[in-house]
Request: fold
Amino acid sequence: LDAIEVDAAFAAQHANIRHGPAARITVRDTGVGMSREIQERIFEPFFTTRPHGHGTGLGLAVVHGIVRDSGGAITLYSEPGRGSTFTIVLPVVQAATSKVRSSDQLTSGHQERILFVDDEMILCELAREMLTLLNYQVTIANDGEEALALIQQATTPFDLVITDTTMPRLTGTDLIATLKALHLGLPVILTSGQGPDGSESWPSEVQFLAKPVTMAELSKAIRAALAKS
Reply:
């Protein structure tokens, strides 16, 4: 992380950012790198190089959206066999200029136990931070089978399950069906990057949240789900 001055040339190449003081975040790895064809599509929603059923391809699309909505810019430099470098440039904010809308007020929990299930680790860690800030106890699982094992082995029952739809081994909808068959009666919130009109269907009593999910949307959905349990 370092401080830079965005000049007119950089601003001209990235229409979303203005010249002036900025913070630059550089993330570099020494991995396999990416071809030019992959680099051109890397920020597209749902684009992924993983096998079908092993991820939604939303991680970098979410990052791109956050940076864009913050008035910043993100660039990528990569060569096959030489790793990749992502550079994020964000304008420096001198003072807070907006207030939280009343519709965005957060509703905190009471240390209820939530199991969050997603095969995208970055989304799991983000959810852990958000749910902890909302005063919930959080356990993470990376697929439906791991989630089912955690539920069955828990000495203290979970109060709520939040699960992604598309995952390897056991999908979110299959997890819901299994919980129902076992008569566990756990309230469930289902998340998906495909939207409510996607190819999969789920029981009408299950709440649905479209990715990316804001903290306000998440807090509201959790309270509604727990109130019905």
